[in-house]
From TrEMBL:
InterPro entries registered for this protein in UniProt: Leu-rich_rpt, LRR_dom_sf, StomDev_PlantInt_Reg
Primary location: membrane
Single GO cellular component term: plasma membrane
Name of this chain's protein: Piriformospora indica-insensitive protein 2
Keywords recorded for this protein, A-Z: Cell membrane, Leucine-rich repeat, Membrane, Repeat, Signal
């Protein structure tokens, strides 16, 4: 299933077969009609929905309300698709007001939002009176200013593959019942006001590809159970309040990861040695986390697919592993305590490399292109040029080129690094 990101939209999307309308077709089920009026009112109370659409809502309804019409006479039609909010000028769905609320009837009163043939006998449908598994695929609500909490019974909609509720005013805690949605591939709750701890049950979502909980108020510890997300490609927990427990070590147990963002939390500690199993990572955001110590040299060896790295505004010290600058086209190391000589290949100078705020760093002025292009790239950030007397610190490890071979000489106590046609040796 492809990802659907619709601005200002709330949709239940299902598939169904549509039939021509018979003149003798019975009206829409009265309970569904009444529930739809209430849902429309909660989305935008300024619109006189009952006055504008006083008749059968299957015959005359706002755009975005779709019914299916049975082939046999005397069978009652039902609502099978609802789409609210702005999509484009060509799809004038019912608009959502700034104070729209998430009416629970959306979840409980439209059991035919599915291609399922199941029916309900109750004349007053409720969540317990039909199979929640009949709701299929998508629950998308983006940027509508909805407030309130996610109802616990959302875990009953077992066929959901995407839950995107981003950029609203939802609050409270995430219900543990979300862990029941074993078919879920996308969970995006970013840009809300959620707080407290993450439920351990999220680790049960073994088919999840994207988890975005950024820009909320989550605290406590990032649960170790997330190691169960063995299909995960995208993880964004940035700008929350996760506390002083360091970068989660379980990340090395999710080799499918391509993007990881933990910026803006209070994780602190050193950057752990977890990169050997994460060679597929392309983007890494570890800014403003209170990190200390050196940047692991192993990052320059294993992260060969890296295109973006953010380590700015931490307390990192020591040298910059050369491989990071070689692979990443965009790298931000600003405002740390890094030191030593920085070397760039000709292709990197002038790209998005940010090193300002590290008074101990100097740029190798002997590299081809650096003098000629001092108006951009790292030299444009007023980093000092290295002097002949400037040396790489004794504990530095320099990486260069596409691959490296490391070995320890136990007699001399020297780490040798072979990189293409050059050897570097530094005491360890």
């Amino acid at each position: 299933m492809g990802l659907v990101l619709w601005t200002m939209m709330f949709s239940f999307v299902v598939t169904s077969t549509f039939f021509s309308l018979s003149h003798q077709q019975p009206p829409l089920d009265s309970s569904e009609q009444e529930s739809l009026y209430e849902v429309l009112h909660s989305l935008n109370p300024s619109v006189p929905w009952r006055t504008l659409f006083p008749d059968d809502l299957c015959l005359s309804a706002p755009h975005g309300v779709v019914c299916d019409f049975p082939t046999q006479q005397n069978e009652t039609p039902h609502i099978v698709e609802l789409s609210f909010g702005y999509v484009s000028d060509e799809t004038p769905n019912p608009p959502c007001s700034p104070n729209a609320t998430l009416n629970p009837l959306i979840f409980t009163s439209f059991p035919y939002l599915s291609n399922s043939s199941s029916t309900i006998a109750s004349t007053n449908p409720s969540f317990s009176s039909f199979s929640p598994s009949s709701l299929e695929e998508l629950l998308i609500l983006i940027g509508n200013a909805f407030h309130g909490e996610i109802p616990f019974y959302i875990g009953g909609f077992l066929n959901l593959e995407e839950v995107t509720l981003s950029r609203n005013n939802l609050s409270g805690e995430i219900p543990s019942s979300l862990g029941l949605l074993r078919n879920l591939k996308v969970l995006d709750l970013s840009g809300n006001k959620f707080e407290q701890c993450l439920p351990h049950s999220l680790g049960n979502l073994s088919h999840l590809l994207k988890l975005d909980l950024s820009f909320n108020g989550f605290s406590c510890r990032i649960p170790e159970s997330l190691r169960g997300l063995q299909s995960l490609h995208f993880l964004d927990l940035s700008f929350n309040r996760f506390g002083n427990f360091g970068v989660p070590l379980f990340l090395r147990e999710i080799p499918t990861l391509k993007e990881v963002y933990l910026s803006g939390n209070f994780l602190s500690g050193v950057i752990p040695e977890i990169w050997e199993n994460l060679g597929g990572v392309e983007k890494l955001g570890f800014s403003e986390m209170g990190l200390v110590g050196n940047i692991p040299a192993s990052m320059g060896v294993h992260l060969k697919k890296l295109t973006y790295l953010g380590l700015d505004n931490n307390k990192l010290d020591g040298p910059v592993p050369y491989g990071l600058l070689e692979y990443a086209s965009e790298i931000n190391l600003e405002n740390n305590k890094l030191s030593g000589r920085v070397e760039f290949s000709t292709t990197k100078v002038g790209q998005k490399v940010k090193l300002a705020g590290n008074t101990g760093l100097c740029v190798d002025n002997n590299k081809v292109g650096c003098k000629r292009r001092s108006g951009d790239g790292v030299l444009g950030q007023q980093l000092k040029a290295c002097k002949k007397t400037d040396v790489v610190p004794d504990d530095a490890v320099v990486f260069s080129g596409a691959s490296s071979l490391l070995r320890f000489d136990s007699l001399a106590g020297v780490l040798f690094v072979f990189t293409g046609f050059r050897w570097f040796g530094y005491y360890v």
